[in-house]
Amino acid sequence: MLNSRSLSLPTIFLHWIIAIAFIGVFALGLYMVDLPRSPDKFQLYDIHKSIGFLILLVAIIRIIWRVKEGAIPPASPMPAWQEKLGKAVHGMLMLATLAMPLSGILMSMGGGRAIEVFGVQVIAAGEKMPMLQETASTIHGMAVYVLVALFVLHGVGALKHQLIDKDGTITRMLGRA
């Protein structure tokens, strides 16, 4: 188990790679969604899907690492409700890092499309399943709002710890504790 002042390099690396990739794939998704149908739009969709698939793999690694390493202790004592809220937000963020790319993959599979990662097929195309495609599309679209809310809560919590509690939370997530 880690002490309250330090975080392992894999914890820090996996956190930031997922955060940066999610922000990038989210921005790309917002940009491409309203573009007119064109080869350029489909190329952006391919990039979006490829990054999403890689996020899923990294998220699985992160969850395995988290289980192996154990829960990250808080940087400072806090009221029970804050600790519970923090754990809930972290848990939901981890679930969302699985749900978002999985729903995207299922959306493509439901549309009868192969899953490719930067042009390399990782799952063959299958039969169209409109109900799966529609359900996964709904989940994928709704998950955007959930993720934005969780990112905001996570960010506000980190800033509160850094600026009000002055416990170095952001500093230790940057590997400087």
What features would you describe in this structure?
With about 180 residues, the protein is mostly helical. It contains five helices and two strands. The protein has helices at about 10-35, 40-70, 80-110, 130-165, 170-175; strands at about 115, 120-125. A hairpin with a 2-residue loop joins strand 1 and strand 2. Helix 2 (about 40-70) crosses helix 3.
Per-chain topology:
Blueprint: H1 9-33, H2 39-69, H3 80-110, E1 115-117, E2 120-123, H4 130-165, H5 169-173
Antiparallel strand pairs: 1-2
Describe, in short, the structure shown.
Belongs to the cytochrome b561 family. The chain has 177 residues and is mainly alpha-helical. Helices cover 72% and strands 4% of the residues.
Main features:
177 residues, mainly alpha, 5 helices, 2 strands, transmembrane, heme
